[in-house]
Amino acid sequence: MKSYKEVHGGSTDLIIEGDWDGDGKDGIAIFRPSNRNWYFDYNLDSIVDKSFMYGNSTDKIIKGDGKDGIAVFQPSTGYWSFDYNLDGITNKSFRYGGTGDRIIAGKWNSTLQDGIAIFRNSTGYWYFDYNLDGLVDQSFRYGNNDDQITKGDWDADGKDGIAIFRPSTGYWYFDYNLDGVVDTSFRFGGTTDQIVIGKWV
């Protein structure tokens, strides 16, 4: 298989982490818009374990939890395409969202399946689709257009909540149960910081 030096390192590459082979550990993947190829490294040895073409150069990318699949979102049309088993074939597609929306995946309810959510910069509204049917299951206003967004199981209840990071103030605001109400907040970070989440302990 090819090494990172042969395929990795493009300035416009998009990167994402995920458990691509179901071994309980995350690997990494990159999506190269210039050739529409994905490159997966399952075990972080700098060797490409799988690659295929999927999506368009202007697509945004996302992944699900568990044994991860991938999805691409095309802002110009609002269409999502899901590849459940990393074979480059679309298993499901539907329209949900549009230009300017930011996207995120999460376990929003008590099922094992990941759903998706979009955050609409222009209004500060979130729209949640729990079961990937293209229908809004819940929506509320939470955040501003310059906030960074993320998700996580903040209270260890088995379901994801959301959080926003406001660079202008350095404050985080957490909503544990998706009711649009701040459950906790604190200051951590600065105006030029980017955010990342993880299970650190």
Helix-strand layout with pairing:
Layout: H1 4-7, E1 14-18, E2 27-32, E3 37-41, E4 50-53, E5 60-63, E6 70-74, E7 79-83, E8 92-95, E9 101-106, E10 115-120, E11 125-129, E12 138-141, E13 148-152, E14 161-166, E15 171-175, E16 184-187
Antiparallel strand pairs: 1-2, 2-3, 3-4, 5-6, 6-7, 7-8, 9-10, 10-11, 11-12, 13-14, 14-15, 15-16
Helices and strands, in order, run as HEEEEEEEEEEEEEEEE
CATH topology of the domain at 96-201: the name is Lipocalin
Strand line-up of the largest beta sheet: 1-2-3-4
- Main sheet, how many strands, which sense, barrel? 4 strands, antiparallel
CATH class bucket of the domain at 96-201: Mainly Beta
According to DSSP, the number of beta strands is: 16
User: What's the Cα radius of gyration?
Assistant: 17 Å
What is the tally of helical segments?
1
* Helix amount: under 10%
Percent in strands: 35-45%
What would the average pLDDT be, to the nearest integer? 89
Distance between the termini: 34 Å
Describe the structure.
- The chain has a domain at 96-201: Lipocalin (Beta Barrel), CATH 2.40.128.
- By secondary structure, it is mainly beta.
- The longest helix has 4 residues, at 4-7.
- The chain contains one helix and 16 strands.
- It has one helix at residues 4-7; strands spanning 14-18, 27-32, 37-41, 50-53, 60-63, 70-74, 79-83, 92-95, 101-106, 115-120, 125-129, 138-141, 148-152, 161-166, 171-175, 184-187.
- Strand 9 and strand 10 (115-120) form a beta hairpin.
- 24% of the residues are buried.
- It is 2% helix and 39% strand.
- The strands form four sheets. It has a four-stranded antiparallel sheet, with no helix packed on it.
- The model has no long low-confidence stretch (mean pLDDT 89).
- The termini are far apart.
